[in-house]
Amino acid sequence: MLLKLQKQIQYYAETISTVTGLDVDVVDTDLIRIAGTGRCAKGIGESIKNAGNLLKTTLKGSKPLFIVNPRESEICKGCQTKADCHELLSVCAPISDGKTTFGAIDLICFSQEARERVLSQRAIYLNFLSLLAISIAARVNERQEFEDISDLLDIMSQVVNTNNKGTLIYDAKGSIVYHNERAKEILHKTLPSQFENFSITPTGCTFSDLNEYTVEQENRQQLIVGKYVEPKSAASRFSKVFVFDTIQSVISHSPQGSAPSFDSSLDNIIGQSPLLLQLKEQITATGNTRSSVLITGESGTGKELVARAIHAIGDRADAPFIAINCGAIPDTLLESELFGYVGGAFTGALSKGQIGKFELAEGGVLFLDEIGSMPLYLQVKLLRVLQERTITRLGATRPVSVDIRVIAACNDNLQELMAQNMFRSDLYYRLNVIPLHTPPLRRRLGDLDLLVDHFISKYCTLFGKSRFTLPAPIVQKMRDYDWPGNIRELENTIEYLVNMVSDQGEINQSTLHAGFLQNENLSPKTPPEPDAQQPVVPLKTLEHQAIMRALAYYGDTTKGKKQAAKALGVSLATLYRKIEK
User: Distance between CA 165 and CA 159 in Å, rounded?
Assistant: First the structure.
């Protein structure tokens, strides 16, 4: 430890030597010469073990030594350099704080005049050397404490950076006295130079128990989330600590923004049929771009799998994938779900506001399923987002920039919806930059064996059953079946068969339900002739009755509603809206 204070100790030695006329020698506990003057100036940084009997003895004790005749002293017996020693008097003291010895200091007389002067003031020199040794020990401890604090700060800094959160520390005047590397990384676009002359203002919104803030410097701004922490000690020279992160980083570690538990890569789209290979080529070609994608196809053909595959293979794979089903959320809530809102924006709104799906998808992909169900007034707002890449939360006035890629999906006939003025053509063209179509299972029966094998493996593993082979008659039934529910229906069918298989891996076909893989006649039955004696019924009532009869006849499932819509001569989207009314 003395070596780290070598320059200071050498300065002390030279000053003492100039004032007293004595030579000074300082060693550490390994007898390495740290400082020296006069004849002891040589060999600094080298060992003096062969010539250091007095210093060796001093290091072992706790009190200073006053040696009047060094060469005649018992301590000097056996010294290897005794014959060449010219010391006439030596005063040694351990450099110690009472607990730890760091080294020793020696005042040496090489002249008779100096020897007599020291002898005449023996007590003064002993006291002086003791105080000097204690002073050096105190400086060593200070240095050690400083290094301990520095080490602690280094460790804390490493922990802070490992935690991957931005950290700002403010002094009592409100100035930033510390910022870690993550803080620089997050704010480099807003604060490209120094952490000066900028503001951090709360927006009033929260996310994942963190408050949202706007960071502004000159004309640059960005949104972050974080919390302020104030030190409990009133004597602390630091006023507060601000720990923060990007919204996107918080999203990526939250359940709604985390990666899906299943494989979302292109390999998860199972099949080798020509239609599917063509689809995979199209997906691969669309990965590294921000252009909008419109995926069309029947229900159950895997449109969301296609959307996730586009995200997984693209340059946004590490950013969020946020999915929302436009047909599953009431119109009154869909707008707030997409755009977010500030506190008190409407009745029932959370007091601290909410971040919308557009912002949650920042840097990544927003998947809008069943886009045909989106009401017209929201279609206008979506079109503006796609054109301007900004959104405004409900109840707010300040626009927020968003960097997202929109992928939409629909199993309705959008052309029909546009003809009925239920879907905007300008939005359609904006979404349909890259059109993709998921083929129905009946057009890719060559993939049936691969899909069956995949689902049998999946559900046998899930239910703890042994793999088995489907009987030939069931396989033939599968090939003859139309699969109106497509891959989703096939998966449900395999799950049913895995449940029905015996411990011996056999399926008793006689135990399968009566409608198993039976193609249905999808043509609607001719409605009964109206009774001429019945009174005239309002059209609104007739419409209500027709819808109720169709649902009762075809069923309230998605498949039943599609058949009911066809029988009633309306689109599926129109039927859903009338049901809602």
Answer: 10
